[in-house]
Amino acid sequence: MSAAKIARLTDRGVVSVKGSDSEKLLQGLITNDLERLDGAGDHTGLHAALLSPQGKILFDFFVVRAAGSYLLDVAEAKAGDLAKRLAMYKLRADVTIADVSSQFIVFALWGDDAEPIGQTLADIRFIDPQSPALGLRLLAEGHLANRDLPPAQTASSCEYDAHRVALGVPEGGKDYEFGDAYPHEANFDLLHGVSFTKGCYVGQEVVARMQNKTVVRKRVVRISAKAPLTSGVDVLQGDAPIGRVGTVAGTSALAMLRLDRALEAQQRNQTLTAGGITITPDAEALTRYRATAEPSAAIRT
Asked: E strand or H helix at 137, and its extent?
């Protein structure tokens, strides 16, 4: 049993999308399917991304319905840019798009008995769609900014990041660079962030090709070490960089990693290092990569 913890995520903002054409607009732009919210109840949200035409992630966010509009839980530093990007596609649609970060506080809530605490804080709450083990996300009204939370239950954003690391869940801007990573590389296919059955959206052809015809050789994976790790350093195979460390939680971290090179190192008994520290990639990630790579190699031969 683990006590419920709640952390205010000060680096998160909120964008509002409302109007009679809001669903149509978002459905034609984002990686996930808004129809998954139909009849799903108040505690349901989506994780999705807005891509470049080349299929790379420009923004990642959570989508939840609230009072006839959609609220997008996004990195605060990207909220204004996301609102502007969505407005580029608006044309004459009946949609109002606004950065409303000043009106909301975003919390993460996880552990046993998490739900009752959430009910005291906000009506807008949803189970994290990437993994139920992550807990709830809460969008609280701004007047709750100074609300006193029980000390035993209050956690820091760093503790929430450690929770993410333990579950292997990346976050844009921390574990992959916006404008540089494909959804598969950020594990959107593994963490329910993309629909492969909905209609077209920006970048959809690239995502479909990676799903059906490409071996994904680079992904965000968990790594571990016997000494504290450092965010932002390269992962090296000998002297060759094959990845970069993202969010760190002591001796564990997430890293964008070339899985083909990591598997090669494992097979050759080579050591991988990050900042001079020996690291071990997540075995499950390597096993999953091997399972997809070997059939492709057999077909080529």
From this structure: strand 136-141
